[in-house]
Recover the amino acids of this structure.
């Protein structure tokens, strides 16, 4: 039972760090590039969605959070994907 609580704590921490490190800068750039986008209009939903996804995939999100080159690639890919109409 203790292991599950530690995993939940680590997953929650990773999810919050991932949103702050990986998603927030991309959505900030997207506000400037495409202010009329639905992603910008419904930004709180995006934060909740990414937090949930990062919580579920915490071991996979940990590496882009701690390795700068992987984080940069993730941010670049996410921005390119969100800029496409």
């Amino acid at each position: 039972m203790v292991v599950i609580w530690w995993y939940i704590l680590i997953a929650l921490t990773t999810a919050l760090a991932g949103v702050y490190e990986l998603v927030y800068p991309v959505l900030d750039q997207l506000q400037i590039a495409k202010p009329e986008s639905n992603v910008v209009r419904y930004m709180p939903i995006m934060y909740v969605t990414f937090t949930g996804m990062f919580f579920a995939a915490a071991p996979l999100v940990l590496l882009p959070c701690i390795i700068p080159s992987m984080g940069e690639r993730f941010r670049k890919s996410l921005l390119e994907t969100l800029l496409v109409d």
